[in-house]
Amino acid sequence: MSYFEFINRRKIASEFGPTKSAQSTADYLAEIDRCEVGMFWATDGENKLVYLSPGARETLGNQAESILGLDIGQVFKDPPFAGEDAPARPITFKFNSRSEIKERLVEIEIADEKINYLKTSFFWKVCAKPFFDEKGDFGGYRGVASDVTQQTRKNRDLAKQSRHDELTGLANRRFLEELIAGTLRKFAPVKRSCALLMLDLDYFKQINDVMGHPAGDELLRQVSDRLTGYIRERGTVGRLGGDEFQILVPDIDDRSELTELAEGLIQIVSQPYKIDGRRAVIGTSVGIAIAPYDGINVAESGGAVDLALYGAKANGKGTYCFFTPDMKSDAADEVMIQGDLRDALEKGQLYLAYQPLVDPRSNRIKCLEALMRWKHPEKGAISPEKFIPIAEQTDLILKIGEWAIRQACANAVEWPGELNVAVNVSARQFAGANLPEQVAAALSSSGLSPRRLELEITESVFVGNVKGVDRACASIDKMGVSLTMDDFGTGYSSLGYLKRAPFKKIKIDQSFVRGCTASGDTNPAIITAIVSLAKALGMKTVAEGVEAMDELELVAGRGADLVQGWIYSKPLTHDELLKRLKNDDFTFVADGPLRYRDERTMVYRNVGAIQGDYHYDVVLKNISRTGARLNGLEGIPAGSEVIVDLGGGQFVVGKIVYTGKSGQGIAFETPLVDDGRGGLVTPRRISPYSLAAAGVKLEALQQSKRHSSRAGTDRY
Ligand code: C2E
Ligand code: MG
Ligand code: MG
Fold first, then answer.
1. Per-residue b or e along 20-33, where b marks 16 or more CB atoms closer than 10 Å to that residue's CB
2. In angstroms, what is the span from residue 424 Cα to ligand 3's centroid?
3. What residues pack around ion ligand 2 (CB closer than 5 A)?
């Protein structure tokens, strides 16, 4: 019988006539106590626990007495896992304000000296009313309780299981989502921000494959320990599944602070691991999104951090990347490309362009590289740098790759002389089962001599299916077709790779060639090193991407055997090429700017600037971390303060440091931050309303919405 039933019965008894003997209330209570039918407790006027009925004591084990005399707020505590169902006010507030307690779940922790003073938790549901004496003075609480320890412990364990990842003990995806939702909800009205970081481990799959799943599991546990050790109280680390982790960090929106945090994460994850006495090395890519700027709810901010991680991955391993709104359109483009590329071949939208490889000493062409082109009916020309990686994600690359080999062979037999043709082959295609057969078929149907065909592969070919690759190398070599190492120096560059296959040529990547004449550049030394390495191995070298005369002079001077670049020719359509080679004219004249100019720092973009109450449309000519050069602020004197509006809430406060014919120079108050993809972003984004509050006219701000939000340093 519950206490309430008991009281009710008593009420009924007293309303419907006297009981057989005239007992006082105190007698009854003493009897109830003795029968241990209910659980009662009371505090004194200072709210110290002074009474626990025997039944109540019974439920709390042998140390129940230890809580007598303690402040009630120290005895009855709010359970920590109440989560979303947590009552609006803490129970201490109730006690302090002497309010009534209704059906409240409380936790009672009792330290047991028998078990090393370990604390055991009991759970009660309590009801109580404050008691006031005749004079109106507070005399403590009088309360009842029911024991719900078993049920609550069970619920708590279940909740823990459903909220935590079994392998690592970290918050799981569901719990993390709840947590983010709750945080965003709580933060919105008080304008607090929070950052989401998403990590995906690099090379985890390889470790799993090579060392086995138990080792993979152990690695994940060690990673999670490092992450929690690094983040500590700053935020919550969770595992979304597989090798994906997510971290919620409240009250941070400064992108330079987040850069540091992300770099720290990359560093600690990249330290070597010891698993079963064996060493393992992995890395991680980190995507970052900040609420409310990049998303105001779980779906939006989750989508943003996903895209940011994708951006980091695409950028190369071991890097971080901030979300920027243009990632959304990039993702949409990707979906479009994936769909449309499927039948681009049948629809005749793909063709090959050819770029000559020229001997810089004789200016004579030796070979032509086939470069795939896609003319999309609506979007126009789409760069292979965009569509080839997407094709590589699926088997589509096998189909278009095979086509490229056939097409290149068929075209090459039409060329005068004995010019070679080089075709790019993707890693996935190269490791595929039937590349040698495809090559043989293309040669026999076109009638091209195998000696005139070269296949260009990159170092990425050697990561993964080792046996398939060695087999392919051997049979291609046997056919008499030659192999070229493309983009050398960019990937995992290992001398071992050069010796793995019978390469005839090494192509020095453009990144070493471009701007190699700038003073203080180490690239000339790298070029020299690659050339002498190639000579030692009996291979020829090609300098890729030569655009300016000074670069040509340098690479030729350092011994590059061939040069490929705009200095000789941009890629030509097959018809253009045939026309060019008519009359057996095989010489190409070098023609280009005398000096390399770093166009990458030249951006021409329309942005906004605010000075006083006015908004100006200005052209950003170039931008660095600490300043910008722009046009459109003529007439504003040097020394004036301006706000440059880069879009998306990114306002940079700066000062005009010079003004002249070539435009105005602005020095920023706070340096910009690298977004992880070669763009620059402001550390913080400012809500337009904060600026308005600081005196900037809202009308001036309103006009600035149309700008995109990332100051690219890409080529335009
Ligand atoms: P890649 O094999 O390294 O090709 C050289 C790239 O550099 C080409 O870009 C070429 O147009 C560009 N280039 C050459 N000289 C200059 C220069 O002086 N300045 C500049 N800025 N660029 C120069 P493209 O045609 O956009 O191709 C990009 C990449 O796409 C290729 O890099 C190759 O990896 C891939 N690709 C192209 N066609 C195929 C193909 O048929 N199959 C496969 N698997 N990949 C291909
Ligand atoms: Mg190539
Ligand atoms: Mg290349």
1. eeeeeeeeeeeebb
2. 9
3. 424, 456, 486
Find the radius of gyration of the CA atoms of the chain. Answer: 37
How many A from CA of 203 to the centre of ligand 1?
27
Residues with CB under 6 A from ligand 1: 355, 371-372, 383-385, 388, 401, 404, 424-426, 456, 486-487, 544-547, 564-566, 571
Name the residue at shortest CA distance from atom 41 of ligand 1.
372
- Pick among 3.30.450.20, 3.40.640.10, 3.30.360.10, 3.40.50.1860: CATH of 36-155: 3.30.450.20
Nearest of 589, 581, 574 to residue 416 by alpha carbon: 581
Q: How many CB atoms lie within 10 A of CB 523?
A: 19
Residue range 500-510, pLDDT digits in tens: 889 999 999 99
Which residue did the predictor score with more confidence, 86 or 20?
Answer: 86
Quick: pLDDT tens for 667-702. Answer: 999 999 988 887 889 998 876 456 666 666 655 555
Torsion of CA 699, 701, 705, 706, to 10 degrees: 80
Provide the token pair at 674: 């690298």
Angle 205-506-441 (CA atoms, 0-180°, nearest 5)? 75
The residue contributing the CA closest to ligand 1 atom 27 is 384
CA distance 399 to 438: 11
pLDDT, tens only, 308-331 = 999 998 877 789 999 998 898 888
Domain locations in the chain? 36-155, 164-325, 332-581, 601-713
CATH number of the domain at 332-581, please?
A: 3.20.20.450
532 C-alpha to ligand 3 centroid (Å): 19
Strands of the 138-147 sheet, one edge to the other: 49-52, 40-43, 138-147, 118-132, 101-112
Query: What pLDDT, on a 0 to 100 scale, did the predictor assign at position 160?
Result: 79
CATH fourth-level superfamily of 164-325: Reverse transcriptase/Diguanylate cyclase domain (3.30.70.270)
Mutate to test the pocket of ligand 1, among 355, 398, 424 (most ligand atoms within 8 A of CB): 424
Longest CA–CA separation in the chain, Å = 132
Angular region, 245: left φ>0, alpha ψ -120 to 50, beta rest: beta
Multiple choice CATH, 601-713, 2.40.10, 2.60.40, 3.30.465, 1.10.20: 2.40.10
d(CA 299, CA 460): 35
Measured distance CA(24)–CA(42) in Å, rounded? 20
Pocket-testing residue among 337, 349, 371, ligand 1, by greatest number of atoms within 8 A of Cβ: 371
